[in-house]
Write a structure and sequence with these properties.
The protein is mainly α. The chain contains 10 helices and no strands. The protein has one domain.
Length: 242
């Protein structure tokens, strides 16, 4: 990617950087808690058999963790291509992006026979983005260490393991107990504090309100589980009537 495209991506704010390392962990755990919890509740309601719950939910957890890990790998790889560690503020010759852009713009306009007054106005328009550019690059500089320090492979493994951790927390009761109803109750009791804690720490590392993030995760997790439960309930009744 050329330096002009890199500059425009930063100046326009079109490119969103990946979360830093703690953020990746808590996001992975949060995602791993919600959907696998909802699926295990739905499967337990339908099958009433712990081994079926474990097989189906574990297969989903492994597949989702793999897909998310691959997504994190390619996202980090693309990020490092856009923001190379030693070439993030200008061209390879060390010339700042604004100065390079000014020279190239003036050269193009001169070749087209554009008058000097219009060339000067174009230069002023480019220079007007200086403050915004400096702000964004400074923010990038403050966080660049977390980007360059986390390889695509490390990001993928972190997301994969984080999702597995979150997913298997609420699946453990179905593995440890024989009674599906007891396992379902214990899984819900485990999900309650885990959703609160993971949401709280996710809020802290992402700059959001920790309390609001915790409550939001709790509501989303149990709403998804309740939805799965009642969908199975409705489908069973429809099947019975037919």
């Amino acid at each position: 990617m050329g330096r002009n495209q890199q500059g425009r991506l930063l100046a326009d704010g079109d490119f969103k950087r990946s979360p830093d390392f703690p953020g990746i962990i808590f996001i992975g755990i949060n995602d791993g808690l919600v959907l696998p919890f909802a699926i295990s509740v739905a499967v337990c309601k339908y099958a009433g058999n712990n081994s079926t719950v474990v097989i189906i939910t574990a297969a989903f957890i492994l597949g989702a963790a793999l897909l998310l890990g691959l997504g994190g790998y390619f996202a980090r790889k693309e990020e490092q291509e856009i923001f190379p560690a030693n070439n993030h503020s200008g061209g390879s010759d060390g010339i700042p992006w604004q100065e390079t852009e000014l020279k190239e713009t003036e050269s193009r306009l001169t070749n087209l026979g554009i008058g000097e007054d219009i060339r000067e106005k174009a230069g002023l328009d480019i220079s007007g983005e200086h403050d915004r550019w400096i702000l964004l690059v400074t923010n990038y500089e403050l966080n660049r260490e977390s980007v360059s320090g986390s390889s695509p492979q490390k990001t993928a493994i972190t997301i994969f393991l984080s999702y597995l951790t979150g997913g298997f927390i609420t699946l453990l009761p179905y593995i440890a107990l024989d009674d599906s109803k007891a396992a379902l109750k214990l899984s819900c009791w485990l999900a309650f504090p885990c959703l609160l804690l993971s949401g709280y720490f996710k809020g802290r590392v992402s700059g959001m309100s920790p309390t609001g993030s915790a409550l939001r995760m709790l509501i989303i997790g149990f709403a998804a589980a309740a939805l799965g439960y009642f969908v199975v309930e409705i489908l069973e009744k429809m099947q019975f009537h037919t």
